[in-house]
Structure formats: structure tokens, C-alpha cells
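Worked example 4.2. Below are the chains of a multi-component assembly; read each line carefully before continuing.
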Amino acid sequence: MAAYLARKLLLMIPTILGIVVLTFILFRVVAPDPAMVLAGKMKSPNQLEALRARLGTDRPRWLNFAAAREHGFWHVFDSQFFNVLAFRFRPSYRTNESVWELMARKAPVSLAIQLPAFFIELGLQLAIALYTASRRGKPVDYVVTFLSVLGMSVPALSIYIGAQYLFGGYLRWFPIAGWSPGFFYAIHFAALPILVSVIVGLGWGTRFYRTTTLEEIGNDYVRTARAKGVAGSDVMLTHVFRNVLIPVVTNTVVALPFLITGALLLERLFQIPGMGGLLVDAIHTQDEPVVMAVVYVTAVAYCLMLVLTDLLYSWVDPRVALK
Amino acid sequence: MRKAKWIFVGYLALVVLIVAGIAISFSAAPPRNPQALTLPILDSIRTLDPAEVNDDIGHPLVGSLYEGLYNYKYGVKPYTMFPDLASQMPQISPDGLVWTIKLRKGIHFYDPTKKVFSDGIGPEVKAADVAYSFKRVGDFNLASPNYSWFDGLFVGLDKWWEYTKNTPKNKVDFDRPVEGFEVVDDYTIRFHLMRPDPQFIFLLAHDPTMIVCRRAVEYWGDSFRQHPVGTGAYALVQNLPDQRMVFEENPIYRGKSDIDGTTPLAKDDPSREPHIKRVEYQYFAETLPVWWLLKQGYFDLIADIPKDAFRQAIKNGELAPELTKLGLRRIPVTETATDYISFNMADPVLGKNKPLRQAMSMAFDRTKYVNDFWMGVGQPATSVIPPTLPTYDASEKNPYTGLNLLAAQALMEQAKRIQGGPIPPLKLLMRGADTTSRQMGEFMATQMARIGVTLEPEYRDWARWQEMTDNRQTQVFDSGWVADYPDEQDFYQLFYSKNIPNAGVNSFVYSNPAFDALYEKAMVMQDSPERRELYKQMNRMLNEDCPGIWVYYRMQNVLVYDWVQEYSWMDYGYAWRQHLTLDQAMRTKAFASGVFRH
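Applying the procedure described above to all two chains together yields the following C-alpha cells:
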């Protein structure tokens, strides 16, 4: 187990490094000079110089040989890239706020939407999948399959806007958009985004878990259990469900980092001040420290979650041995 | 095996709990303050520091919190300036290099957090504060995006800039004198300019020259941008980033801009500003929710109809009846802004070929463009100067802005002779990669194809577009200019050849010594019939040279509920909200009628 963990953790390093290098190249090499963007329509060379100094883009990108000559070898790493690699992110170009503070403020908001949406969605997906799989070929199966495919085919944006108009604008059951501090106020504004998140995610999960369940139902142990006279619901919940849990664990654990990063479109449309909106705004405005920080942290969290998934496999299914 | 069953049951219980929580929260809608004016803001606020603000979103907010030396009279057109923190208009030396300005007395900074000043009342605004505020903009460490307004304008500012550049941020000595900002006495500041600059007066009514409180800046440090301490009619009482900002009346405000702090208006004086004591700004990234919330009466006013809602809002050129029934009224506004398609005059094909540029301008159907893309809201342009500026002359015909395909084709023959053969395909750079930009690019290409010019549109996001135009890496590009002050010079600077280098504002790369000579002569003159004549000559020169296709003058449709009165569109200046009035009885009645529901 320890050797397995060590190997997996070591393998994370090149993966994360690759992601960071790629994002860094996109934003610091390919993208336009952020000082030019921030300077606005009136620019002067002095102003651009000062802005670059403030943003830290006046430093060497990869290695700082000048600093090394002046202050010693280790200062060669006092460069834009190694600062990012060492989690030394500069403040947001736009607001000058620390990216850590920004993330600490916005991640809980995203979680307030994503976490309940995820659990409701998963519960419904599993319940519907188990039910329809046990009634394969019956009308209810066809109806659910049709609705699932429909849900997967309609673009999420259309569902968001449609729901916003119908439930918020026309029926006025929910607030159209917005956010407010305070637990109950937050839930008040979170209700519709949670609902549409569930609607958007329900289709594919139901289809996926239905297929997985059907595969399990066709196995010998299910036939044996039924032949032994075990009740249908007990077969599904105690025998089949446990084996269906393996893809559930994979999807759940891997989804966790993305619950924190939020849903990009959803947050913008419903005016949820979470991580999704932060990332979209940062990309639009070339706010590279924010993008780098979010991407980097997400990449690390994702890789860690993959390792955790492997560990959970062995818990869910004792046949899986980690070597 | 029971474990799986329990997991499933646990899940269901959790889902039930969440759904129950949501149901309970339905009665928890945050209460609305009936006295507040509620407005949307369509972008997040970067800063509330006047030295740093350079965007349309932050500008009106900063302008409610801080004041400058001068401002524009609210609702008065043509725009007229008045002394705000200054007590009188500036005394300008005969050579135009020395500006002496007297300050009003008895005006104090207000600290709503009461952290810098325990009772909230800060020191009186004095000339040293003016000098300090100007020095801040010239501080290398602050890297103000507004520094370009100051660069090369004030005597000794270059030395101050170098000094701050070589001094750590927290070691800068702001008591160090700068020759250009002379504190004559507590209530007199004298500016020494490097060159005569009649437009300097406009800079004194612009955000970067608003006066800040030194002790507040020193107390808050970098977070001063979120903790304004100003002299404006409003004070920031709540700031939830990316959610909401709440402004309330500054309790020590003098009640009106153009009076001294020593003679404030009484609290019960009906003319005392701000009339609306509380303004709530709600941040929205998308316009459709704003539109729906306006129709629910949640917002009292929006500055423009969202493009996606336009067909619903305007019927037969008028506001739709269902909206007027709600109590909304439409205020159409022509902005002091021109949209155009620029030619890069340094381009070997375009720069030398005036008939080609003229032909392209004549082949462009501006009316169709305005109808197709702006729902007919906007005026086809006849020159770069918009109609809201004094020298715009509707009777003066520009032969190259009317659609005339026959004449354009004749000009194309000349163009081909100059080129020595067919005109090669031209790259058209669009500032956006969204669907609308693509449709516009295709529209422009189709228009030019009618005279045998091939335009190849390239779509780039705004940042890349800006970089390419700054680096002059373009041939033809869509662009535009919004005026910063009510003087045509703001537009003519776009064609002055000394504004070409260092990513200057002359992105046309237009260089014409005759134009430069007129510009240099006009830019040091005060407004006069002679200067206006020079401006008109410059305009004719540009119309003839066609460095761009003048496309249209922007218009906006402000929508405002009847209970909000005294609204007036202002292109320039600040402190607009304090003039608005709110008829609460009318609003209450409208809501009670059942038209709206929250």
C-alpha cells in the first residue's frame, strides 16, 4: 500500500508540472501583455513600465540570471515561472487582492450551490437508475431513457436561461438571480441554481448508472440470489447496489475538486459570487495570477482525488488490491 | 451487506434535508429598503481609488464618493463647468503655464468605517491634500493607469516619478515638494505646467484628480481602494465584492456641490442633496437577469436596454406598451462617441491609396448596419466628430459617407491604377470573437465585396485586439472612441502624428503635417470662434483623407421608472446620483397595484 501511494504521488509531479507549464505558456507567453490591457486607452511608456513592475511581468519568465549573479545562485529561480510553481502567486491584476483570499471567499459560495446539487443529483440518479434497470423494457424505462437523452441533448445554457425565465421571471417562484450573505438568504438565492444544476446533470448520470446496474443484474450472483428467493428490492439494494458503487465512487471523488471551482456559466447567469464566475472573469480580463492559482490548485486537488479514488476502490470492493 | 442499504437510506435522508432547507428558505427573501434607489452594475468593481479607476463601471461610483476641483453642471447642455472643491474658476497666467486655484473652506473628509477617524469626521480639505492626491497619481509604486494624463504635463513630475521609482513603496516621502504642485497657502494650490494646455481644466474634473485623504490612504494601505474616505455626497456603508454596494448619504456633506462647507444647507432644506439617501448597487455579469429584474420593478433604472431584450422592449420605434404600463419611460441618449473602421495608414496598400479608402467608405451602408446590428438605435456617422460636440455641423456634407456604389466603383478604378493592379485581400481585425462580432465582420466583408475589395475578417478577443492595434499589426480594424471631455481635441488627438509612437492613441498611424500644424495651433487655444474654425478645417481634412470609415454615432436607451425623477444623461463629470429624486408614494402605489411582485 505504501509503495503504491508513493508511486502514485510521484507520478503526480510530472502531471501537475505539465498543467502548470501549459497554463503558464498560454498566459505569459502567448497572451497579450497584461500591462497593455490594464493601461486602458491612454498609455505612456512610463505608465507601462510601472504597471509591469507592479504586475511582476518585468521579471524574467523562466530563469533570473541577473538576480543570480547579483545575489547568489538560488535567486536564479526568482522568475515568473518558479514563483508560480512555488505557489507564490501575485495579487489579482484587476483588484490587487491576494488570490488566496479571493479563493477563500469564493470557494464556500460555490460549494453552497454545488454540494447540495451534487448530492441531490447523485441520489436521484441512483434511485432512478436502480428503479428503471429493474424494470428494463417496461414503459417507465422508455420514458426515463427518453427524458435522460433529452436532458443530455439540450444545451445547459438553454436550460439555465429557460429555468430563470420560467421560474424566476414568469412564475416568480424563485428569485431570478442574486446572492446575499446570511444562511437562509443564501439558500433562498441558491434554490433555483441548485434545481437547474440537478436538472442538467440528471440525464447522463441516470443513463450511466442504469447501464452499470444492468450489467450487474445480468451477473450470475444476481440470478443465484433470486433463485434462492431473495426479494427483488433486497437484491437491488444489498447485492447490486454495492457493485454499482465502484463507478459512483469514481465519479464522486473525481468531481469533488470541481465542486469547489464551481460552474462557470451557472454562476455568471445566476450571479453567484463563486469560483466559477471568478475564473470566467479572470480569463476574460487576462488576470493571470487568478487563472494560474485556480488551475494549479484544481490540478493538485484532482490528482490527489484520483489517488483517493484508488484507495476507496479497495474499501468498496475487497477484490481490488493496491500494489 | 446492510452497509449499502444504510448508505442509500442516508443519501435519501440528506436529499430530503436539503430540499426541506430550500423550502424553509422561501420565506427568507432579504427585505428591500423602501427608501433606496436600486441600480445594477454590469461588471465587478476593480477599485474605488480615484487614482486607479479608469473604467466606466467604477467611474460613477467613485464620483459619488469623492470630489474634484471642478465638475460639470448637472443637466446643463452644452456642458458647463463649475468650481466644486475649488471656490472659483482658475486664474491662468497669460502664458497659460501657471494655474492658481482657490479652495472652498470647511469641507471635511468623511470616514464611514470610523476606523481612521473615530467620529468619522476627517480633516478639512486643504491645498496640501490636492498636492498629495496629484503626487499619488505620479507615484511609480502605485502604477496608476491614469498616469498618462499627467505624464509630461507638470513641471518636476518627471523627477518625482524617478524618485518614487527608486524608493521602496513604504519609504516614499510625500512631503517632498514637486514644483508643479505648489501649495501657496492652506486654501490655494498653484499648478505649473510644462506647456499651455487649455484641456487641463477638463482633467481637473476627471477621476484621477479627485482629492483623497492622506491619513486614510496611509491607514488602509493597499486596501484603500476598498475603503473610500472622500468628501462626496455619499459614503460607502456596505461593500460585498461581486454582490452589492450600498451608498448612504454622507452625514457631513454640505448639501450642494457649489457651496462652501462653512455654510452648509440645513438638514431639512428640501434642496439639500443627495435627495435619495440610500443607493444600492447590485452586481450582475449578465444583462438578461437585469432585464427581468427591471420588469419586476426591482431595479429603478437601467442605462441601456440589453441587446437580447431589444425587440421585446421597442415596438415601432417606441417603448413597448406593456413596459409603459409598468411605469417605465425611455430616454434616448446620443453618446459623445463614434464607432468606426480604421485603416492602418502605414500599410503599403492602404496608406498610399486615398481613392481606395474613399471608395470603401462610400460602399459601406451605414443605415443597414445600424438597423441590422443596433436595431436602428444609432445615427449613421458623417465624420469622426459626434453631433454632441459644438463643431459638428449636420449641414456639412461628407461626400464619402453616403452610400454611392457607382461613385465608389469609379474610385476603385483609380485605386487599382495606384496599386498597379487588383487590390490584394485586406485583413479586417474585429474586436471580439463572439457571434455578433462574426456577423459584423461578415457584414463588412459583404459590403466591400460589392466594389471588388476582399476583406478577410479575423476575430480576436479584446485584449489581443488591443495588442495588435497598439503594435500596428493590422490593416483594417473596427474601433471607436468615447469622449473624455467636451472638446473636439479629444478626437483629433487620435490623428496627431506625435501620438503614433509607444502605442499612442493614433492607431490609424495617420501622419499629415498640415493636420499636425492645425492641431498644434488649436491645442493651445482656449475655446473661440477661431479655434472652432480650425477644428472644422481639421475635420474636412480627415473627411477627405479618409483614414477610417466613420460608421455610426452611438445611442443608448435609458429606461427609468416614473417614480425616479430628475434624470439627466451626462457624458462627463461625476456626482450625478445625488440630483435624482425618488417618489416613494408613487412606487408604493405601483407595487400595491399588483403589477409587480417580489
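Take a moment to check your reading of the output against the notes. Chain B is about 30% helix and 20% strand. The radius of gyration of chain B is 27 Å.
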